[in-house]
Design goal:
This protein has seven helices and 18 strands. It is an alpha+beta fold and 299 residues long. The chain starts with a helix and ends with a strand.
């Protein structure tokens, strides 16, 4: 049972029965019992302590760009590490960034300082914390290549700073996926470059992304992880599923690796479509597609 007054003592930034469709790039999701947009590590620590002492479930999120929230919503407290924790400072060739900084904003700051190494990651939607969580990548670059250290809260409530090689980075994976941690900030190591060349590279990557991906429609990015030896989008396209829809959810007609919300899609629509895609691809090619999108909330 959530005590509203007790939560509001921890932070004024708490909303109740807040529709998650307003906080996810899919524009889908029922209400969260309580939603906190944290503005400091102290608020996060206080909120987690409250949840543990009162047997209230909680989850951490960033910009909601890789989430599908169920139509029934989320019981307990959602703690967002987002716009209220988005400080970004550059010292020499290093970027000191809070977890809530948008990837695009960090890329812009790096460009302004003429620092190279983040260009390919500049168009990834979501926060730096979310990028670390799943070791986000694009065009041959991954977060693990530029992360020097990550500062996070562990299960015991201790604040730890670890070097990148201790964080088990792999394909769309880090130690943080195992649960019990809250990413607070990081240090990113870049290299001096020429502003004009950095800007040109960013423009080219964003042109390619815009040309190939359905950026004008709500989605959660790539729906499936890349199966070894294959490309998920190509498999789906070769099954003749481009444009196939269930309710308001559709396999993008621009890129088959994306499920999009063409208007009024429910989480059930998306899940039903994902299952149909998985079944069809397995029957035709014997390949099991694993969702890259995180499925969150009550079933």
């Amino acid at each position: 049972m959530i005590n509203k007054q007790e939560l509001l003592k921890i932070s004024e930034n708490v909303l109740f029965d807040e529709p998650m469709s307003a906080h996810t790039s899919f524009r889908i999701g029922g209400p969260a019992q309580a939603f906190l947009s944290a503005s400091s590590k102290e608020e996060i620590i206080g909120a987690i302590e409250y949840c543990r002492e009162n047997s209230v479930g909680y989850m951490i999120m960033g910009n909601g760009s890789n989430m599908l929230v169920s139509d029934k919503g989320i019981r307990g407290l959602v703690i967002q590490v987002g716009k209220n924790m988005s400080k970004c400072e550059i010292r020499g060739e290093r970027v000191y960034a809070e977890a809530g900084v948008l990837m695009s904003a960090l890329a812009s700051a790096a460009l302004k300082a003429e620092l190279s190494g983040f260009e390919a990651l500049s168009g990834i939607p979501g926060t730096v914390g979310g990028g670390i969580y799943m070791n986000a990548g694009a065009y041959g670059s991954e977060m693990k290549q530029v992360i020097e250290t990550v500062t996070y809260l562990n299960e015991a409530g201790d604040i730890i700073t670890s070097p990148a090689d201790k964080l088990d980075f792999g394909y769309r994976h880090s130690i943080f996926e195992e649960g019990g941690y809250v990413i607070l900030s990081c240090v990113i190591a870049l290299k001096k470059g020429k502003g004009r060349e950095i800007a040109a590279q960013m423009k080219e990557y964003n042109r390619r992304r815009s040309e190939k991906q359905p950026l004008s429609m709500p989605s959660a990015g790539s729906t499936f992880k890349r199966p070894e030896g294959y490309f998920a989008g190509k498999l789906i396209q070769d099954c003749g599923l481009m444009g196939f829809s269930v309710g308001g959810a559709q396999v993008s007609e621009k890129h088959a690796g994306f499920v999009v919300n063409r208007g009024g899609a429910t989480a059930l629509d998306v899940l039903t479509l994902i299952e149909h895609i998985q079944k069809t691809v397995y029957e035709k090619f014997g390949v099991r597609l694993e969702p890259e999108v995180r499925l969150i909330g009550e079933k």
